[in-house]
Amino acid sequence: MRITMVGSGYVGLVSGACFADFGHDVVCVDLNEQKIAALREGRIPIFEPGLEALVADNAKAGRLTFTTDLGPAVADADVVFISVGTPSRRGDGHADLSYVHATAADIARAVRGFTVVVTKSTVPVGTGDEVERIIRETNPAADVVVVSNPEFLREGAAIEDFKRPDRIVVGMEDERARDVMNAVYRPLYLNQAPIMFTGRRTAELIKYAGNAFLAMKITFINEIADLCERTGANVQDVARGIGLDKRIGSKFLNAGPGYGGSCFPKDTLALVKTGQDHDAPLRLVEATVEINDRRKRAMGRKVITAMGGSIRGKTVAILGLTFKPNTDDMREAPSIAIIQALQDAGARIRAYDPEGMEAAETVLDNIAYASDAYDAAAGADCLVLITEWNAFRSLDLQRIKEAMTGSTFVDLRNVYRRKEVEAAGLTYFSIGRPGSVADGTTAQAAE
Predict the structure, then answer these.
(1) Could you read off the pLDDT of 215-227 as tens digits, one per residue?
(2) Chain centroid to CA 434: how far?
(3) What homologous superfamily does CATH list for 2-198?
(4) What is the pTM of this model?
(5) E strands, 168-245, where?
(6) Is 28 a catalytic residue?
């Protein structure tokens, strides 16, 4: 099939490359001329494992091309995907749909013949209705069916998620879209990926509800971790004990410094605003947003407490800046609030991240960047592990201790065991486990 992806950011580029790998002819469109020029040269603007090779292979095969000219790309397409950004709108937290609306109008002016227009961007319930209205008003003669097909890609595992999805959700109001969308995703039938056809508004809400539920799950275990610290319990054992219950499941039960990234923060906030607009307040989601925001700064205070209550003039080494491993994404990363809290308390920051330092420079000031974990630890009074990159999972702790001036190691991802850290001469603090710091108190039970 001939597929056009309008928007060549994270979702558009990954989806376009994967569709091309399925054998479809794909054109990725973006207004950013520098981005398109880079993609044509094989330079990928984001870090996602396996994406560079996937793009290169399909571009070489002629199935994947890039352009800034939307008109011809849309006119020749059987299916046009809208995959532009929907950031939180300044001031009120609603999703900013201006890019989606503008794209809908551009598509309407360019479309030729029967075309399925698919919203891939994460959008509030009812957006598909508005996209359809804009297309009809802009071009009354357009023979178009508007579909919702939300993405469920995890950064760092996006290609695997696309090719082996738990489910494919297609929301539609016109049965003519069914055969087309089945054809688009036919290669996934071999993986027995279920395609769920629903109403358009239902599909839009599935995306937000899914992200909100996962965000609540993360926030729940983080609050349980705080209780574990006060009582001497071990949050990892609690998480395993409840995760073995098939009704709950083990995923997203790893205690840490709070969720971040491009999806959970903006999507939970947008869902809260949607609930308020429809007089159906989502109190659990509202609490999740508030608790998560507070937690990030609280992790900064946790480090200060571990250092005896004052870090003024001290050097803190930070391992990991991105919101999760295997991405260069710094959007809403917990490291931002943590570092700012430490800097406000007078600390000097020395940081290392395998992929995120260039992006970090745009959102964080007055940071010294290191060449690796050991360089970051050099001369540090305290070491804080924020993002659990594989490179940080098997550090030479003795070498870390020798590099540091101090001996405090705060593990905000529970990567290490107390005994192995203390054997290297370091003082160890973690999340929700015996011996962890909690508002100045330390549980005394043995880990």
Answers:
(1) 999 999 999 999 9
(2) 30
(3) NAD(P)-binding Rossmann-like Domain (3.40.50.720)
(4) 0.92
(5) 168-171, 195-198
(6) no
